[in-house]
């Protein structure tokens, strides 16, 4: 595991910290300041627990069962039972990085001093993360309100030494066995602690943070492939002029246009070889590429703003306030996160849609301005990239379905006590699928655009295009020629795009791309 260390304090955390812990295995350390704040909040809970007055989550049942007062001798059982009963997820296992993000973000809130857990709970959760132990969490079970209840419950179960978890070796075993191997004592939960472990938006937030990072890389990659397609189609770079974008001052649009213009610098293909079929204007998929990608960039900026606010939050119910009051609230409702998760799925689908239209244009001999049909070696004998575009179209169609918002749905639960829910977990899950598909769509455009540029014999592409072509060929994506088993080329191109190699190949010639 990476020995980079992330310090958790009462002030919250950053998106980079989440990614470092979730994906890179960064070590987690809870600051002394945070532990002091946790201890102070716990004293408030202990004082309330000693009084006869009912306090939600401390001396009452949960949800629709909150009307029952729980006597002191049953409270440990109460906290243990909420974890066991709520660990009711079903379906495939959720990815390791998602579970680690979820646990880290719950730890962040526990360390805020607003939840009332003991320092022992915080320290044990950090120890589990640092040991590389990952609870088994299932796809279905969260409605995105009252927090990601089932996913967080499966994590809390591991804290108690129950259920199954994946060890650092990738093998799933009983959690009790894994904790014992790492000399971690299971926690016996006390008042408020079971509830505090479950009541957060941590799963959907963790997925939002990682989606923002992935989508940012793919938007820049799509700017590069759009520029390559423009170059391959002998399009005009004049539409990318900064003064045109300054009079419609969306910052994302200007950034994407700037990226494309830098990629096209020095090209011998753009705008100068249209004598056979003069064009006053290029098609929308070429000419409006910055407007579409730019709108995605601005959507992403808004999503990151929401994520940063949520990262600064302490989401629990009830919460311990600085003046010692313990108050019920609705901050666990996932609407703010769910909305932007859905919004990003829309932006991703449209970015994929316009990329697919550019690919189709490259393959159509009636619209590609002199390129062979389907970029084939011997069209008719060879089919070229015909079916690669089919695959791309299938992915785009799926992404359009995934763009249907989850957050507009609500199914009441808990005997109508929880009568409006966010479905934010579902929005996050489908966004992850959409972003995975977008990487594949961009990869297909890359394969088509680089092949098309190489087929422009006698014309010299720009330095950035030449660098990209050289890098993508070195990565195992072959150039023009006769038909061959195409799936490995597409897989290599996808890996190239997903790892950020496309942007890395261009930047030595373009300078840093936005």
UniProtKB/TrEMBL annotation:
GO molecular function terms listed in the Swiss-Prot or TrEMBL record: histidine ammonia-lyase activity; phenylalanine ammonia-lyase activity
Signal peptide start and end residues: none
InterPro entries attached to this UniProt entry: Aromatic_Lyase, Fumarase/histidase_N, HutH, L-Aspartase-like, Phe/His_NH3-lyase_AS
Major subcellular site: cytoplasm
Keywords, alphabetical: Cytoplasm, Histidine metabolism, Lyase
One GO term describing the cellular component: cytoplasm
Cross-link for 5-imidazolinone (Ala-Gly), residue positions: 145-147
Top-level lineage group: Bacteria
Post-translational modification: Contains an active site 4-methylidene-imidazol-5-one (MIO), which is formed autocatalytically by cyclization and dehydration of residues Cys-Ser-Gly.
PTM-bearing positions, type 2,3-didehydroalanine (Ser): 146
Pathway(s) it belongs to: Amino-acid degradation; L-histidine degradation into L-glutamate; N-formimidoyl-L-glutamate from L-histidine: step 1/3
Catalytic activity: L-histidine = trans-urocanate + NH4(+)
Gene3D superfamilies documented for this protein: Fumarase/aspartase (Central domain), Fumarase/aspartase (N-terminal domain)
Keyword Plastid: no
EC identifiers of the protein: 4.3.1.3
Membership in a protein family: Belongs to the PAL/histidase family.
UniProt-recorded name of the protein: Histidine ammonia-lyase
